Each structure stands twice: as C-alpha cells, then as structure tokens.
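Session log. Operator J.P. requested a structure for one protein chain; no other inputs attached. Running the standard single-chain path with token output.
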Amino acid sequence: MTTTGTTLVIGATGTTGSRTAAQLTAAGHRVKAASRRATPVAGTEPVPFDWYDPATHAAALDGVDRVYLIPPLGDSEPAATVLPFLHQARTVGVHRAVLLSSSAIPEGGPAVGTVHQALPDLFEQWAVLRPSWFMQNFTGTHAHARSIRDGGIIWTAAESGRVGFVDAEDIAAVAACALTDEQAPNTDLLLTGPEALGYDDIAAIITEVTGQPVVHRRLSYEQMRDRLTTQMPVEFAAMLAGMDRAIAEGTEDRITDTVQRLTGRPPRTFRALLEREMRCSS
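Structure written below.
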C-alpha cells in the first residue's frame, strides 16, 4: 500500500463515490466523505458539501491533499461552479485531483469537458476518468432501471449501436489507483467493460439471468429528448438524447484495457454483475 494523506471524495454516497470511498478505506487510506447531508459512510469522516454553497467548501478541504471530483449532476455548465472550487483546493494544498467525466465527452467538450481541459494547468498530479455507460444504470435508481422494473422496457434512441458498458466497481478501482498510486496517471483514462453490447443484448441478458422479460424499445432522438425532459432540464435532456444518437452512429462501440492495466485484473462482464446482484438479493 502506498501511504497517502487524506482524500476528499465528493459525491461519497453516489454510484462511484461510495465505491471509491469503500475501496480507499479498505486499503487503509484516510477519507473525508462529502455529501449534502454529511451522510455517514463506513470508515470515513463525513463532511457536508454542496457544490452550490461555497460556504461548505473550506471545511471539506481542510486537511485534504487529494480529491475525487464528481461534478454537480444535471448541470450543463459545471465549470462555473467546479473551477473556483479547484482553485481554492490548490491554494489550501491539494496536489492531486481525479475527475469523473464520460467517454462521450472529450477534453474541451461540452459540460465537464471544460473542467477536464483546465485540470492539468491546476494540478501537477491528475487524472480524468472517462467511463463508458454504467452497468448499474440497469440495476440501480437510473431511469433505465426504473423502466425495467415498472414495465420490462428499456427506452433509447441508440438503435443497434453498441456500448462498452462498465461496472461502477471497476471505475472505483481505477479511481482508487489514480488517487493513491505513487505516480499519478496525468492523462485521461477511457474505461470500458470487456465487451461492447447493444441495448437488445442487454435486454436479452437481463431476461435470461433474471427470468423477467425485458425488451428494448427504439425511439427517435426527438422522442427520447421529450421523454427525458419530463425528468430533467431540457438542455440536459437534449444532451443525453444526443449521446444516444451518437451511440447509434457507433461512437461508443469500443473496448479498452485500462481497467486491467491499472488494477491488474480484468473488468467484470454485465452477466457476472447481474448474477452477483441476484445472489446478493436472494
């Protein structure tokens, strides 16, 4: 184990933040777990944190030398909020930052892409995690998981496009390495699972493993945008529907060896994740 200082994990109750905090503490690292309500997270020091309340930032950063950044959810222009925080972090002694972005957003791209672009000039030690779509989108609280539970349907505008879906546990394992390895990656890391699957494939695997019939229903870009607009701001809905359209065009049909290279083990398959969740719930 590499000895480190204290890591601030922002979004420590979320999909990747909770898993990153757990993996860091299991390895003996000190963690401050940041969330709006300072929710207790096993093995950590919980601290209140709200991206839109700068009064919470100084206490969260106190005594911290590295930070795991999950940008404010649903914000189409997070740089306005995140960059002032990062300048403050650097001023108080944070020297390593690991940012969660997306495989669909390049450096300098929309939304978190602007934060990605700024990170190397702010910190000598850094990494940007660019995971593909989460496998947990089909099992947690995501809209796909809800529509599967409610009606056995996955709605997308992705047509037959394939995605290298990745397990959030594997994202967290890479995050933990990027935060604590002696040498920081100092690059962006494209994270995928071991296979590229279409939404028809996902529906078939869920049906086979769980016994619940699930189908993929194909929508147009406009239909998907309008469906999402009932759940979120229209700008963000349009961006997400546009990502589906990009999947249809093949932009996510790829796999990488990043998880294996950084963690020393292969990424988990979607079938293995479902089987594990079935065992845990039985």
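Operator note: The chain has eleven helices and eleven strands.
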